[in-house]
Design a protein that fits this description.
heterodimer, A: alpha+beta, 5-stranded mixed beta sheet, two-stranded antiparallel sheet, 10 helices, 14% strand, elongated, B: mainly alpha, 4 helices, 0% strand
Chain lengths: 250, 109
């Protein structure tokens, strides 16, 4: 990339069908992929659709496919991913494209809900706050899974999501595992029943693409493996999985 | 795959591990001692122990294989979950039937 002052940027334009358009974007020091997309929209084509909010790796809005890999674009340096002064940016895989680089993440969040992703309080505001020992095994297990920002990178990288429309996906199952380890949560049995059903944790093939691509360096595969063990033990003790959730038609 | 199928597949695999070891040990014994098919049938004929061993082996293999086939069909074929269940159940039943036929040939006169 050194020696040139411009980057050749291919951006996906259209919906489910469309094509890559090429733009020339000035190179800047410490430029991120999100900076590149923003430059195109503000200076070259204001009709470009994309999604971002915080720009600092917190909100999880700006994930896209960069040179074939799902990445959080606000924390991805152009200098690290550009190949021979070129970069290709498309929408996330495994999600319907709304327009250009913006995907419809409804299914992603619906599965998060279906996996029991919502915290179920077991106390009221009038009760004492429950003290959680930082060194307790459950707190440590929750710690390992808790920093997910719901960017959808793991979902886009997952082969099982690609093959099985009912699969809840790494992010939803990772969230479920963090709540299973939350001593304050009262939804444990329902959550285990939800993730033990068809399309739940047992559908995972352990390819570990989620762990490979997670920008937060989380390991959803390990969370899913833990859910497999926990649900299997619960089943042997008499707990039964929920009936399979209604998924999109294959 | 749900938790019940997961447990059935893992449990059938666990059952098969020692059985496979015994099966392979028998194969090695037979080849190293030049035991012919007729010799084997003479020894296994009427044996309840070998009948029970290989019938259980056939049951575990049929269950394990049928669940694996079900998962492949559900993910890779247009059958859907219901069609995959039916096809895999038929496959498992056929496999078990063939297995029992082989066991019968081993122990019945």
């Amino acid at each position: 990339m050194s020696g040139t002052s411009e980057l050749e940027v291919s951006l996906w334009r259209g919906g489910e069908t469309g094509r890559y358009h090429v733009y020339a974007v000035p190179l800047r020091q410490s430029q991120t992929v999100l900076d590149v997309v923003t430059y195109v929209q503000r200076h070259l084509d204001p009709t470009l659709a994309y999604r971002f909010a915080c720009r600092v790796g917190v909100c999880g809005s700006c994930a896209m496919t960069v040179n074939g890999r799902p990445r959080w674009t606000c924390r991805t340096a152009v200098a690290k991913v550009a190949e021979n002064g070129r970069i290709e940016i498309g929408p996330l895989e495994n999600l319907p494209v709304i327009k250009d680089l913006a995907t419809d993440m409804s299914a992603f969040f619906e599965k998060w809900r279906d996996a029991g992703g919502a915290f179920v309080p077991s106390r009221t505001r009038h009760d004492e706050i429950e003290a959680i020992a930082p060194a307790s095994p459950a707190r440590r297990a929750a710690d390992a899974a808790i920093e997910c920002i719901n960017c959808g990178v793991c979902y886009a990288a997952c082969d099982t999501v690609r093959w099985n429309a009912n699969f809840l996906g790494p992010a939803a199952l990772n969230r479920a595992w963090s709540l299973v380890n939350d001593a304050r949560d009262g939804g444990g049995a329902d959550r285990l029943a939800a993730v033990a059903a068809g399309g739940g944790c047992h559908a995972c093939h352990t390819h570990q693409s989620c762990r490979e691509h997670c920008p937060q360096a989380l390991n959803p595969t390990a969370s899913i493996a833990s859910l497999k063990r926990r649900t299997a033990l619960a089943y042997l003790r008499g707990a039964r999985p929920r009936a399979q959730r209604d998924g999109p038609a294959k | 795959m749900n938790v019940a199928l997961y447990i059935a597949q893992r449990a059938s695999a666990a059952v098969m591990v020692p059985m496979i070891a015994v099966h392979i040990a028998v194969i090695f014994y037979a080849t190293r001692h030049a035991v012919t098919a007729a010799d084997i049938l003479a020894r296994t004929g009427g044996s309840l122990g070998w009948a029970a061993f290989y019938a259980a082996f056939a049951a575990a293999a049929s269950l394990h294989g049928a669940i694996g086939i079900r998962n492949i069909l559900a993910e890779w074929s247009p059958l859907g979950d219901r069609g995959a269940n039916i096809a895999a159940a038929a496959f498992g039943a056929a496999l078990f039937g063939l297995g029992l036929r082989a066991v019968a040939a081993l122990v019945l006169p």
